[in-house]
Amino acid sequence: MLFFTPSAWAQFTVGAQLRTRSEFRDGQAAPLPKDASPAFFTSQRTRLSAGFSGYRFKLGATIQDVRVWGQDASTINRTTTQDNNALILHEAWAEIMLLDTVVKNKSLNLKIGRQEIVYDDSRLLGNLEWLQQGRRHDAAVLKYETGPYTLHLGAAFNQNRENTAGTVYNPTPPGNYTANTNGAAMYKSLEYLYAGKKLGKGSLSLLFLADQFSKFHPDSTGVKIWDKGVHTRMTTGLYYNNTLDKLTLTAAGYYQFGKNANAQDLSAGLLSAAFQYQLCSTFSAGLGADYTTGGIGTDGTSHAFDPLYGTPHKFWGYMDYFYVASAFGNRGLQDYYLKTKYKPNSKFQLSADLHQFYSASDIPDNLSRKFGTEADLVANYALTKVISFEAGYSHFWNTISLTSPGVKNVGNAASNSNWAYVMVIIRPEMVVQKLGITN
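Structure tokens predicted for Alginate export domain-containing protein (439 residues):
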């Protein structure tokens, strides 16, 4: 049978990643009390990935293990607990080409399974690459592309197990890891439409996303009991990015409405604008500003914008004070920043950023809206195409407004915080261009 079966050609790809990061934390994510000691540890991410593509299909899978050096006893086989990431299936997906390859300049593909969902600059939808565990979704995405135009429709529906009746969903994420960038619960379902057009050296896109969260009621002790039905939150807006000669312009605006996971009426927004200018072949500099609304209206409406499932480490300071696991009272944020980049050759890059942070809403007790100032310095060096090194240092000068009870609520807080890291990344990949298979 194998002898008479017609053969075809396919491509097989195998890749790996070993990323170790040693961190010194003296007020990372939030200022420490003055009598607290800094933390130091080394974490490691190990990934093994494989890809297989043939006639009108692609397959991809990534196995990932994340751990801190020393968290396991060296003489035993650790039993995985919810508080540790451990070994997981990061990606496992198939992509089907619904149009034949003879159709020119058009593609209609269906991608199903566990996958990273990344669009534009990763502000609202990103793979959270900085965190060792990353982010992925169990979803189906229908992708249509023709020429410079892109249209994607995506959907996900989450359940805790194979139920025999009902679809009530417990959205509490396992362990100590938050489900989205604001530390809220995991969505029960999600749908989105993404439409984009490629420009000369950039893109213009529209996003409409709806995510649903399980309804609940508190029991006598205040613990949430999950009920039938959902609250729906909707987010829509535009993103623009383009390079004109030596000037790169970026702008975005999004509006959020409906009800959030806490059943509050929602009316919130995000505005962002920035430019970067190439002063010479090795150095560029630019200015920018981000504004996200926050606070609660007199009618109980929440104005706290949630940047969904993005990569906040990329935008609001590398010390992760805002829109990560450490909350800041849903106050909203004003971020005015200067970013510089020095790249003398293809192997070395040095970036230096300065952020000035303010609350977007009033702080209790008539405190100033100023949160503080952050300076970030990052150096990257590529030893080879496979091996690279990265090191960074950040410093935060905070105010009493940031550590006040209505914001981060840190008593007897230090006024200066530090964070430093060194990271080694090894990422080999092997591609077999042609592989005989049977149909």
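DSSP finds one helix and 19 strands in the chain.
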